[in-house]
Amino acid sequence: MSVIRLLVAKDLRLEWRTREILTTMGLLALLLVIVLGAVKSGPGGAPAAMWVTYAFAATLGFTRAFAIEQDHLTGLLMAPIDRSAVFAAKALTNWVGLTVVQLFSLPLFGALFTEAIWGRLGALLLPLALGGVGLAAAGTLFGGLIVQARLREALLPILMLPVALPLVIAAVGATAGIVDGLPLPAIGPQLKLMFLFDILFVTAGLLLFDFVVEE
Amino acid sequence: MRALIILSVALMLFGLCWALLAAPTELFQGVPQRIMYVHVPSVIAAYTALLVVFVASVVYLWRRDSNWDRVAQASAELGVLFISMTLASGAIWGKPVWGTWWTWDARLTTTLILWFIYVAYLIVRAWAPGPRGARAAAVIGIVGVLDIPLIHWSALLLRTLHPQPTVFRAAGPALPGSMLVPLVIGIGAFLAVYAVLMVLRTRQERTLQILAESLEGS
To answer: Which sign, positive or negative, has the C-alpha torsion A148, A151, A152, A155?
Structure first.
């Protein structure tokens, strides 16, 4: 646990000094909110626009997460720590980054699409968190895989989006339900699907990351 | 091997002739219903291929035997081929029967998403040669199959949230024998073709590897 905390602290400190990932992710998210809002703004479009924005911001941010390790990845992997700890730390950092972007863009969705979002911030945190964890887990697994296989970063969305589609579909459904004022049990199946996706990809990441980064 | 080729060709010809000429014409759908004799066998071959990718990928990561990697690769290629055939034949059938080429039905959506995942798998294989690419591909092959139930479930949710003009499959479970027999022959034929192509493709890759190794050695 302390190893994970150390690694996360290192990544966050690095990010705090460069602000590279958050700037690019945040700007892309802002841009997508504006573009999607300009094309079609209306209460019905908010949930889909939100998750398209988050999914694309995630793919952009997560490609950088391993790229910043370029020269140090070998050092990180040679450290006497469990590989699954490296995965957990990277996924956590990615999740923190994505959460920041999610929280900052929420008011914008409220302003451009529907103000109902502002009134249900508390309930919205649930799908945001469940969706964020799933995107972070899947994105970290595939991000590590792409960097280690010396593939182009442009491959991440092509790999990650189809695999994460069930999560995104469920997240849009759950968000739409909350924005429409439905009680939580009404979106139970969506939340359950997201939870299962999270468990599946966190487990797969912890188990398979060892094979992914192996020299 | 030769026997397998002859068997698959014979089954394919026999099954097609039966399906197109001898099988009765369905009352409501008419002639387009005969697409089923191609559509259902290709989807069964496709899912068989993906299952083989999954098993071969797990064994490859576990044992590190490149034979299993070649099996996974060959099967993924054939999986994409059969998924493409499933999507194409389904769309051609859907137009006259449903009145639309495409609908966001759970099965259709699942099949389409799987096509994307395994095309990405092939891109990774093509761009990252050697053991690095093989391990990356194995992880995708494993995760892709584990994702199938979630994809299907999410597609079901999608439909209930956004009601479409729902058009269900007319084919009930009780298929008359005059249609069931050519269908079973068709399934056998497609699985035999899958087996033939698997053997050919893995042999081809094996030869390629031996050639590459001997060139390195000289």
So the answer is: negative
> Are A32 and A53 in contact, with CB atoms under 8 Å apart?
yes
Residue A67 predicted with pLDDT over 80: no
Q: Which chain B residues touch A139 with a CB distance below 8 Å? A: none
ipTM: 0.88
Q: Which residues of A touch B157 (CB under 8 A)?
A: 169-170, 173, 189-190, 193
Which residues are registered as beta bridge partners of B30? B26
Report chain A's mean pLDDT, rounded to a whole number. 87
Q: How near does any CA of chain A get to the CA of B167, in Å?
A: 21
Interface mutation target, options B83, B123, B139, B152, chain A, most CBs of A under 10 Å: B139
Q: Is A173 in Cβ contact with B161 (below 8 Å)?
A: yes
Banded model confidence at residue A169, pLDDT cuts 50, 70, 90: very high
Quote the pLDDT of residue B164: 43
Q: Does B21 touch chain A (CB under 8 A)?
A: no
Q: What is the pLDDT of residue A15?
A: 83
Distance from CA of B52 to the nearest CA of A (A): 19
- DSSP code string of chain B: -HHHHHHHHHHHHHHHHIIIIISPPBTTTBGGGGGHHHHHHHHHHHHHHHHHHHHHHHHHHHH--HHHHHHHHHHHHHHHHHHHHHHHHHHHHHHHHHSSS----HHHHHHHHHHHHHHHHHHHHHHS-HHHHHHHHHHHHHHHHHHHHHHHHHHHHHHHHS-------S--S---HHHHHHHHHHHHHHHHHHHHHHHHHHHHHHHHHHHHHHHHH-
pTM here is 0.88
Cβ within 8 Å of residue B160, ≥6 positions away = none
> Closest Cα of chain A to B98: distance in Å?
25
